[in-house]
Amino acid sequence: MQQLLNTALVGLTLGMVYAAFALALVLVWRSTRVVNFAQAPMAMVTTFVALVVIEDGASWWVGLAAALLSGLVLGAVLERAVVRPVQGGAEINAVILTLGLFIVLHALAAVVFGNRYRSFPAPFGIRGLEIGDRTIALTATGVFTILAVLVTMALLVALFRLTDLGLRMRASAFNQEVARLLGVRVGRMLTLGWALASLVGSLAGVLIASGSLVHPGFMDSVVVYGFVAAVLGGLDSPVGAVVGGLVLGLSLSFVSGYVGSQLVALAALLILVLVLLVRPGGLFSTTTARRV
To answer: Could you report the per-residue pLDDT of 224-264, keeping only the tens digit for each?
Structure first.
């Protein structure tokens, strides 16, 4: 029973980590209709910015603020300087460009921050919480991660469903010409979409790094599982991203705990294939796929 509870709690925390990154992918997809494969190295760079600030004597919270601010600026700059020139052509151009950014940002981070492993502090304790005479596999930092992801999800849902800004961002993503005719400044909406997605990615990077080691490749595995979580829930749904992350995290935790850790990657692939076969748009997709 104790093992079952701990495995579920580990899966819960892991799922929220995947959900945090999936939220960034959903945000950039929903506001620009681009799958951003560079989201992971962008988050990695801003996490290193936070680490530099913390190592310079500032608190974890100041480091988080620095990461969020740098993420906001990085997303806006990349959209205006790199992504904007290829928009208007084939849709695949922007996707291929993000793969190029993935490699470039990795190389730049290795040059600027180095390749060695560095410890990233946690905002709260990293020891399991004690309930009675038992210690469970849930830390105070894990609880903070869960709450932060839920609050971020709620803010994104409110942005897209309750505000005119969210409506303009969605209109710009779906049909730029019609949006322009309706008076929407499409360029600004696309820049804002990239900036906000980079900010959410920066939050995910700091949450993932807290209490562990960071290096230029520490987000590489997360981008794979985060992408699976986003597809699982539906690339167009913030709630789906969180549910997808939870389902994936719990599934992989039970596979690792009861079957074998070497089968985790295979289990993630099977889940992705199963979802694409049964419900291609994801569990929370609001559009219907039509076979022609």
So the answer is: 888 888 888 887 788 888 888 888 889 888 988 888 888 88
Residue with tokens 């399991």: 128
Confirm if 31 and 236 have CB atoms less than 8 A apart: no
Dihedral sign for Cα atoms in the order 103, 54, 72, 226 = positive
pTM, two decimal places:
0.86
Q: Closest by alpha carbon to 173, among 201, 155, 197?
A: 197
Long-range Cβ contact pairs of 1-10 (< 8 A, separation 24 or more): 2/134, 3/257, 5/136, 5/137, 6/136, 6/137, 7/137, 7/253, 7/254, 7/257, 7/258, 8/250, 8/253, 8/254, 9/136, 9/137, 9/138, 9/142, 10/137, 10/253, 10/257
Tokens of 152: 């971020």
For CA atoms 141, 146, 151, 152, the dihedral sign is positive
